[in-house]
Amino acid sequence: MKNSSFLYDFFKKGNISNENLKLLLETEDFNEILFKLAKIKRNEHHKNYVNLRGLIEFTNNCENNCYYCGIRKSSKIFRYRLSKKEILKCCEKADKQGIKTFVLQGGQDPNYKDEELCQIIREIKENFKDCTITLSIGEKSKKSYESFFKAGARRFLLRQETASSSHYEMLHPKNMSLKNRKNCLFTLKEIGFKVGAGFLVNSPHQTTNNIIKDLNFLKELNPFMIGIGPFIPQKQTPFKNHKAGSFKLTVKLISILRLMFPFAMIPSTTSLNTLKEENSLKISLDAGANVLMPNMTPKKYQIHYNLYDNKPIRTNKTIKSLKKKLYTMGYKFKVYENILQKN
Ligand code: SF4
Question: Can you tell me which atom of ligand 1 is nearest the CA of 161?
Fold first, then answer.
């Protein structure tokens, strides 16, 4: 077995060769040391804090047809759009629970005109002065992104899903391109957004080399947030019979990402916790995750935002119990970034 000194070097410098990445990804030999080092790195930079974001799934309409996604255009599902009033109510619900970052997530919905979205952003900012608005609404023009930034949005999540062109083509129809997605990410950065990217773990046809390409692309992009989650099949998609992604591999990748990006916001995603592994939340936080995104969407809509099968429905009650659960795991909530709470 290879000497583990390369891992200590990775811990110190944040860099690792593709050859050693392959070794980490394809063997289990170094897991124990990797998880230990990632936990130390997490504690060094984030102590035992968990950042909370209030997720608002405000539209399940989408003009795209990604082969892995349950709300793709071709899915025969009930379509909804939250009104501005309903969105503000979700923000209020989050705010009351001490959550100051709102993530407005939706499909790539062509019916939301820029001005309408800008108005929503402005009103959220007026009503919740100390909040941060994150958008996750897909690929748009530079002009649109600029208008959202001007209106007050400061963060944008857009996962590349895979950074390999040939693999991207296996997951998306011909009218979508990886080039455009990457351009959008760099444009968002140029405008001033803090961007989030990420990829699907064990998506159909994914190879180890594809994952290495994703990690290298993230190095180049240097995002503020990185979201990775296991692929989970959805019954209305072409990949309905494909097996779900691995919990172990996803957690291992969280640790690799923590060592590569010590400061990044890395969520323990809902999809990861959908796999129902015992202690999944604690394992992912210990591995390096430092963000949770409780769902603020009204329950009656949440059930229709079924990106993948068995997506859990969150209620206020479960958020309260989640808070308690975190305390028992030795973690604390952090409301404001850069300002550590006293207790
Ligand atoms: S992954 Fe996003 S862009 Fe693709 S179909 Fe689903 S919601 Fe639309």
Answer: 1
Region 211-221: mean pLDDT is: 98
**99-152 confidence digits (pLDDT tens):** 999 999 999 999 889 999 999 999 999 999 999 999 999 999 999 999 999 999
Give residue 335's pLDDT band: very low, low, confident or very high (50, 70, 90): low
Instruction: Say if 342 falls within a structural domain.
Output: no
CATH number where 101 lies: 3.20.20.70
Asked if residue 343 is part of any domain, the answer here is no
Give the model's pLDDT for residue 321.
Answer: 79
Lowest mean pLDDT: which of 152-161, 173-182, 303-312? Answer: 303-312
> How many domains does the chain contain in total?
1
Residue 339 maps to a domain: no
Partnered with residue 59 across adjacent β-strands are: 81, 106
151 lines ligand 1 (CB under 6 A): no
User: Roughly what angle, to the nearest 10 degrees, separates helices 18-26 and 208-221?
Assistant: 130
Provide the residue range defining the domain that includes 282: 5-334
Whether ligand 1 lies within 6 angstroms of the CB of 62 is answered as yes
CA distances in angstroms from 130 to 5, 99, 150, listed in the order given: 45, 10, 17
| Neighbouring C-beta atoms of residue 294, cutoff 10 Å | 20
Inside any domain, residue 55: yes
